[in-house]
C-alpha cells in the first residue's frame, strides 16, 4: 500500500515538474520570440502621412512638371513607389474608415459619403484599429490633423461638451486636429476630447455664423457660431503650419517607446489656403502652391526624424485618401496645364481610376531598397494587417476582415501579386466596383461621382467634365453617355490603364464573374 502511494506521489510529482517545464519552455520561447522580434525588426517607429485629395498626378515623382515636390520625391528615390495603389473609397470619410479599421466601408451600413459636424463616431470602439493594434505592441500613438470620422454616441454632436468617444477611444493616446474638414464648420481645433479655446459663456450654436475668415466654400454653409475665441484661433492660412508644429512637438517628445504617428494633413483639400511663404511658388496657381506646402510638411517630418537619429528605424508611408477633385480651382489648374490625376480617367468621388488610384510611397532605409517602383496592387485598407505582421501580432477573426498583409510588397521581398481582388467604392452606391487582376468592373454607366454639367461649379463631374478635360472614353460622346453604351463597364487595365475602351460586350463571362462578386458584397452584413 505504501509503495503504491509512493508511486502515485512520484507520478504526480513528475507530471507537475513536466508541466512546469512545458510552461517554462513556452515562456522562454515566447520571450525569445519577443526578444528576437525586437532585435530583427526593432519595433520600428511608424509614420503614416495621409494627404487629403492629393491626386495621382500631383507629385513630381509621379509626373507633375508645373510644381516640385523634392521632399516627397526624396522618399520615393530612397524608397519604394507604387503605381497601382488605391484608396478603398473615392470619398474622404469612407476612405479613412477603411484605412483605420481594415474594413471596406460597405460593412458599415453602406458608408459611402462624408460625415459632417453633426455626425457621431462612425467606428465602433470595439473594432481593432491601426492605433489600438500598435498600442498593444507597446507603441505610443498619436493622430494629428483631419479626423472626419465623427465624435460621440449621439447626433447632433454637442460641441460644448466632451467629444467622446473619438480618436482616444480608438487607440490614439493623443489627438490634435481639425475635427471635420477645412471647408466645413465648426472651424476649430480639437485636442483629445475638447475644442481648443472653448469658453463656457460663449457656447457653440447651430445655425449661427462662425467668426472665421470667409472663403467661397464657407460662405454657402450654415456655420456653427459662438465660441469666438475658438474660431479666432483657426486661421485658414495657418492650418497647415500649425498642425505641422503640433506633429513635430509630439515626435520630439517620444523617447522611451516606439511610436506611431498618423498625420492626416488638410492639404490639399479646398479651400486652397497655403501660408504666405508658399503663395506664388508653383507654375499652376494656388493649387500647386498648396501642394508645395504639403511637400514642406513632409520635409519637416523627415528632418525631425533625422535629428532624432531615428531614420534607419522609422518606416514612413506617404499616401492620399482619394484622387484629386475637379472643383473650380481644380478646373483652373487643369487649364494651366496641370493634370491632377495624371492621365487617369476621372476625379475624386468617381469609380474611374482617377477617383481612387493614389500615390503610395514607403521609405525605410536599410529595409526598403532605394529607387524601387512596384506595380503590385495594394490598398489603404491593407495597413491594419500589414502593421500586425510588422509587429508580430495576429488579428482576431472578426477584425480587419478586408485587410491583406502586404508587408512583403512594401519591403520588396516579393514581386508577386498579394491581392487577388479589391472592392472600390465611389460616392454613388450604384457604382460599386471590383478590381480583379487586370480587370476593373464598374456596376453602372458613368463615373458614380459628382455629376453637375456646369463648368466652373464645385460639383462639375461625369461625362461633361471628361469632355472638358479632353479625356477619352468609348461610352462618352460630346459630354454625354451614348444611347447604346453598355449598362455597366469593364476595362482591361493591363493594356488600357486610362480606361479609354469599355469592353463589357466582349467578355460576358468576366462580366458575370465580377457581377457575382459584387452581389456577394452588396448582400454582406453591416455593423
Automatic annotation (TrEMBL):
PROSITE patterns, per the entry: SULFATASE_1, SULFATASE_2
Residue stretches making up the Sulfatase N-terminal domain: 44-392
Keywords assigned: Calcium, Hydrolase, Metal-binding
GO MF terms, alphabetically ordered: arylsulfatase activity; metal ion binding
Highest taxon, organism lineage: Bacteria
Signal peptide range: none
One Pfam family here: Sulfatase
Family to which the UniProt record says this protein belongs: Belongs to the sulfatase family.
Record's protein name: Arylsulfatase
Organism (species): Neotamlana sargassicola
Lineage of producing organism: Bacteria, Pseudomonadati, Bacteroidota, Flavobacteriia, Flavobacteriales
Amino acid at each position: 500500500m505504501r509503495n503504491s502511494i509512493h508511486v502515485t506521489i512520484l507520478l504526480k510529482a513528475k507530471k507537475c515538474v513536466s508541466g512546469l517545464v512545458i510552461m517554462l519552455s513556452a515562456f522562454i520561447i515566447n520571450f525569445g520570440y519577443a526578444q528576437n522580434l525586437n532585435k530583427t525588426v526593432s519595433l520600428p517607429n511608424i509614420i503614416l502621412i495621409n494627404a487629403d485629395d492629393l491626386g495621382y498626378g500631383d507629385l513630381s515623382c509621379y509626373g507633375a512638371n508645373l510644381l516640385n515636390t523634392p521632399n516627397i520625391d526624396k522618399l520615393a528615390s530612397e524608397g519604394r513607389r507604387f503605381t497601382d495603389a488605391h484608396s478603398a473609397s473615392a470619398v474622404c470619410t469612407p476612405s479613412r474608415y477603411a484605412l483605420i479599421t481594415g474594413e471596406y466601408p460597405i460593412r458599415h451600413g453602406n458608408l459611402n459619403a462624408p460625415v459632417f459636424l453633426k455626425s457621431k463616431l462612425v467606428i465602433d470602439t470595439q473594432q481593432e484599429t491601426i492605433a489600438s493594434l500598435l498600442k498593444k505592441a507597446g507603441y505610443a500613438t498619436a493622430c494629428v490633423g483631419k479626423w472626419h470620422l465623427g465624435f460621440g454616441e449621439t447626433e447632433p454632436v454637442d460641441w460644448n461638451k466632451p467629444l467622446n468617444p473619438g480618436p482616444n477611444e480608438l487607440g490614439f493616446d493623443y489627438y490634435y486636429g481639425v475635427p471635420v474638414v477645412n471647408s466645413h464648420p465648426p472651424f476649430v481645433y480639437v485636442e483629445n476630447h475638447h475644442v481648443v479655446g472653448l469658453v463656457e459663456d460663449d457656447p457653440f450654436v447651430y445655425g449661427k455664423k462662425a467668426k472665421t475668415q470667409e472663403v467661397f466654400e464657407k460662405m454657402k454653409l450654415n456655420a456653427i457660431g459662438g465660441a469666438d475665441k475658438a474660431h479666432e484661433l483657426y486661421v485658414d492660412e495657418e492650418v497647415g503650419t500649425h498642425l505641422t508644429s503640433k506633429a513635430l512637438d509630439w515626435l520630439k517628445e517620444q523617447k522611451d517607446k516606439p511610436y506611431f504617428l498618423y498625420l492626416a494633413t488638410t492639404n490639399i483639400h479646398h479651400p486652397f489656403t497655403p501660408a504666405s511663404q508658399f503663395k506664388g511658388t508653383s507654375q499652376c496657381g494656388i493649387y500647386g502652391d498648396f501642394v508645395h506646402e504639403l511637400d514642406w510638411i513632409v520635409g519637416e517630418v523627415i528632418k525631425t526624424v533625422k535629428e532624432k537619429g531615428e531614420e534607419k528605424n522609422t518606416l514612413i508611408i506617404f499616401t492620399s485618401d482619394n484622387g484629386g477633385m475637379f472643383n473650380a480651382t481644380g478646373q483652373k489648374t487643369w487649364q494651366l496645364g496641370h493634370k491632377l490625376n495624371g492621365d487617369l480617367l476621372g476625379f475624386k468621388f468617381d469609380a474611374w481610376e482617377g477617383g481612387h488610384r493614389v500615390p503610395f510611397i514607403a521609405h525605410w532605409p536599410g529595409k526598403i531598397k532605394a529607387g524601387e517602383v512596384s506595380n503590385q496592387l495594394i490598398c489603404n485598407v491593407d495597413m491594419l494587417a500589414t502593421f500586425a505582421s510588422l509587429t508580430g501580432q495576429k488579428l482576431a477573426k472578426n477584425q480587419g476582415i478586408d485587410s491583406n498583409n502586404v508587408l512583403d510588397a512594401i519591403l520588396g521581398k516579393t514581386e508577386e501579386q498579394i491581392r487577388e481582388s479589391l472592392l472600390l467604392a465611389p460616392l454613388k452606391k450604384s457604382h460599386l466596383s471590383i478590381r480583379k487582376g487586370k480587370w476593373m468592373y464598374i456596376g453602372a454607366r458613368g463615373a458614380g461621382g459628382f455629376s453637375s454639367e456646369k463648368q466652373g461649379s464645385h460639383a462639375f463631374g461625369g461625362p461633361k467634365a471628361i469632355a472638358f478635360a479632353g479625356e477619352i472614353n468609348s461610352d462618352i460622346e460630346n459630354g454625354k453617355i451614348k444611347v447604346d453604351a453598355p449598362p455597366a463597364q469593364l476595362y482591361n487595365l493591363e493594356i488600357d490603364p486610362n480606361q479609354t475602351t469599355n469592353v463589357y460586350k466582349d467578355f460576358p463571362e468576366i462580366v458575370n464573374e465580377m457581377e457575382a462578386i459584387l452581389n456577394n458584397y452588396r448582400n454582406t452584413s453591416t455593423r
